[in-house]
Design goal:
alpha+beta; 9-stranded antiparallel β-sheet; 3 helices
Length: 190
């Protein structure tokens, strides 16, 4: 006859074994990631050195912005005369301040991250003719960042806040709003 305490020890051992088995299995599914120091910037570029931008989404919509001779911005595509320079400067400022949250050492398939094909492409053209390109994929499961493929083929996670203003330019082009003309009072004056 098995004693009650022996039976309790056997049951406890089986529960611990089941927990260990479950824990080991979940660890195999976790992607190996390297936390990156907060100071690691995605770009090492000064805003003044940017000559142009090209944004494109997976549907083929695109936007091209170039710096004009006065140092302001011109919207090349879609062609518009009145450009919201503040919106462009804000988007560039946020993009250049983007820090790497995480680097994926052994990333899953690029298609699973939304990087093959990329959902967005951001091309920065510098005044010396060089270019910097990032491909932006899906949002990470936490919702706090996007998967990004860099020029040097690293897969990183970048803050949603840092990229969103730039990506929003495709949906809301930086077109300056012109004020409505003032109404003319047509009542006769005495």
């Amino acid at each position: 006859m098995v004693r009650r305490s022996t039976l309790l020890v056997v049951i406890l051992f089986m529960v611990l074994l089941a927990v260990l088995f479950y824990w080991q299995r979940t660890q195999d599914d976790v992607q190996e990631a390297t936390p990156t120091p907060a100071s690691a910037a995605v770009f090492d570029i000064e805003s003044a050195n940017i000559n142009g931008l090209r944004l494109e989404d997976i549907n083929g919509s695109f936007l091209i912005v170039e710096r004009d001779e006065t140092g302001g911005w011109t919207l090349v595509e879609p062609r518009v005369e009145d450009v919201d320079v503040a919106a462009i400067d804000n988007a560039i400022s946020q993009l250049l301040s983007a820090n790497i949250q995480t680097t994926l050492n052994d990333p899953p398939a690029m298609a699973d991250l939304g990087l093959d094909p990329p959902i967005f492409k951001v091309l920065i053209v510098l005044d010396d003719g060089s270019q910097a390109l990032i491909n932006v994929g899906k949002e990470a499961p936490t919702g706090a960042g996007y998967y990004v493929l860099t020029d040097d083929r690293k897969v990183i996670v970048v803050s949603t806040f840092s990229l969103q203003a730039m990506l929003d330019l495709l949906v809301f082009p930086p077109i300056a709003l012109t004020p409505a003309p003032a109404e003319v009072d047509s009542t006769p004056q005495p």
